[in-house]
Amino acid sequence: MAARGRALGVLALFLLGCSSPAKRGPRPFAWTPAPSMASPAPAPPPPPPPPAVVTPPYEWQMQLFTQGPGQRGGVIMTRTTVGGDGVVAVAGHCVDSFRDAGGRNRTCGGLPDPSVTLLGPRGEHLWTWMARDGLSGLTADVLFTEKGDVIAQGWFSGAFQPAGRPLEGFDARVFAQNGGMNFLASLKRADGKLRWVRAVGGSDPVLDGRGVVHLADLPILPSGEVHSVVHGFDVESGKPVYELSLGSQGACAPQCSRGALSRHPTEGVVNVAHQNHQGGLPIVFVAQHVGSDGRKIAAQRIEVEVPVPGVRDPRLMRPLLHPSGEMVIPFDYWEDITREGRGTVLVRLGPDLRVLGTVIVPGSCTFVGSLGDGVVFRRYVSTIPRDIAEGSFTVLGATLPPPDETDAGSVLGLVELKSGRVTTFWAPRSRQLSDVRVEQGLAVFSGNRGLFAVRLSVPAP
């Protein structure tokens, strides 16, 4: 046992000596632990796929007019609206002699005269209304009432007594000061006969759910101050319901943004305006909810930061009421006088006028309607920059087919309200999408060969 103990002791000393640094020789092949390292960062997620490009088939296509031998006239489309049963009202103005879409020979004034054309669900001509007087004017907007009658709003600068009727509300002093006045008229759905017509202040008509047509106005007072005013008229009689001043916007030098109306989801309208913008500061809007009877219901001051610090002269566009109940305020901005770095911002408002969020879209867009959970915009495009090999170009990540023979045109896009992501582009074969309006999924626009309608659909998830 003693011998065994001595042997174990020798072995222990030998092992101790091997592990002692003082007695250990060089160990060129010894393993050295690597320094501690953090786990590698996960790879970034792949970018979302570019928006799909859809070429929708035409629902219908037609000419608003044709020219006979020696004729030089025609109809210029300004704006469209789509009724619940698919009928389409076209606002515009006419000149000289032409044949309307129904084949009837027409004679308009030598100067532009207001006109309205009503088309059926397949684009068939139903009637055309023209105001032939000693005037120059146009129809700027059209709306459908719940009964299907057409409300037309426009402008005139000469003698204007359609169907021999003097205008209610005509003010010679305002007419002389402004060189003209606006008008508001009601046309029968069945035949386009005039129900009532009157001279009004304001433009951009909005019809609420209680039978009141509202107009936004910015009259200039003798002091030079500009006031934001809203007018309301009864849709059945044309009689005034209210006139409400929402306060002064100041002298508005060097320029003043006009007011813009949106229908409120429950009652009345929301007037949106902004004063002169100072570079480097947030863009300030004032939204005011006005009831159908002219009551001031609520007001909200809205400040919006944009990604370009040197923003100049933001341009307020017409607000939209989305079927979700959100009101959407769009405006353009640009970085300097060359308009580089330009973009478009959507401000989302709830019924209580509180901001629900903002969406920023690169480049200048004009919003023309709603669809699903998003809003539809029109984007002007050209072939610069251009992929010479494929004859295509890129907009917001999507490769689009080349424009038509004019080498320029427009596309429609859908941007989601909550995510701000562009999900679809529509590129109709006729690419001159001027005066486009999207309602109930139907896009009606003036193309380079007439009037067109295409059906838009929400992209599959």
Low-confidence stretches: 1-32
Helix and strand content put the structural class at mainly beta
Taking Cα atoms only, what radius of gyration do you get, to the nearest Å?
Answer: 33 Å
Helix content: under 10%
Cα end-to-end separation: 84 Å
**β-strand amount:** over 45%
- Number of E strands: 35
**Quick one: overall form?**
globular
Strand numbers in spatial order across the main sheet: 1-32-31-28-27
* Largest sheet, strands/sense/barrel: 5 strands, mixed
- Count of discrete alpha- or pi-helical segments spanning 4 or more residues: 2
Mean pLDDT: 82
Structural commentary:
The protein is mainly β and 461 residues long. It is built from 2 helices and 35 strands. A 5-stranded mixed β-sheet has the order 1-32-31-28-27, with no helix packed on it. Strands 22, 23, 24, 25 and 26 form a 5-stranded antiparallel β-sheet that branches. A hairpin with a 2-residue loop joins strand 34 and strand 35 (450-455). The protein is globular, with a radius of gyration of 33 Å. It starts with a helix and ends in a 6-residue tail after the last strand. Mean pLDDT is 82; it is low at 1-32.
